Amino acid sequence: GHSYLALPGTYTVSISRYQRGQIVELIKEQPFEVVPLNLTTLPAEKMAEVFDFEQKTIELAKDIYGTKKMAKTMLKELLSMKQAVVMSPNIPHKLIVKMEAVEKELNTILWKFEGEMPKASLEERTPAKPTIDEMLNNLVYTHRESFSDITATQRQLYADLHRLTKAELMHLKQIRDTVLTQFEITLNQHNVRYTPNRFPEIK
């Protein structure tokens, strides 16, 4: 969905292969020129700015995916710990209440990214603010295969996405570094069975 894959200029290319633990060069660096085809109806006046904005958007999309993946991983780890607590008679089960509160917190974060996932169609979703995923799709598809300058609306959408994603990432780090870590310590103290990504303590 890019518009510009590269800016006009001089580039080099070489070909190598990996063979038996070594990199073998097949063709040495060769220079080549990238030139615009001038087929665009409304070409961007500031091509470099468009290219930089698209690169920033790609990096932001990676951050959004990583943050969402982190939330899902943490939720999976938490559910494993909760199940272990249920099966452990020697640990206060009031810990489950605390875990369920964190579970709700993680689900709320995921809701901000994905929103409601209806069984039949998107038309069945409850009216709500656009999710982070929807905002990202809007940002990407409004400029997909476009060679025009970036609009103020697109810049604002990027800024909003960056702000929202950073806030949720910091929230997740706070949960992981304090709450989940404390849960792991408590489970180890009560000799609760192993759960994924929790280091056992050998006494």
Question: Would you kindly provide a written description of the structure presented here, covering whatever features stand out?
Answer:
The protein has 203 residues and is mainly α. The protein has helices at residues 47-86, 94-114, 132-141, 152-189; strands at residues 9-19, 22-34. The chain has a two-stranded antiparallel sheet with strand order 1-2. The N and C termini lie far apart (55 Å). The mean pLDDT is 88.
Question: What's this, in brief?
Answer:
By secondary structure, the chain is mainly alpha-helical. 54% of the residues lie in helices and 12% in strands. A two-stranded antiparallel sheet has the order 1-2.
If helices are DSSP runs of H or I spanning 4 or more residues, what is the number of helices?
4
Order of helices and strands: EEHHHH
What's the arrangement of strands in the largest beta sheet? 1-2
Mean pLDDT: 88
Structural class: mainly alpha
Counted beta strands: 2
Low-confidence stretches: none
Give the C-alpha Rg.
24 Å
* Coarse morphology: flat
| Main beta sheet strand tally, sense and closure | 2 strands, antiparallel
Throw out a few tags for this protein.
54% helix, 4 helices, flat, mainly alpha, 203 residues, two-stranded antiparallel ribbon
Question: What's the arrangement of secondary structure elements?
Answer:
Blueprint: E1 9-19, E2 22-34, H1 47-86, H2 94-114, H3 132-141, H4 152-189
Antiparallel strand pairs: 1-2
Helix pairs in contact: 1-2, 1-4, 2-4, 3-4
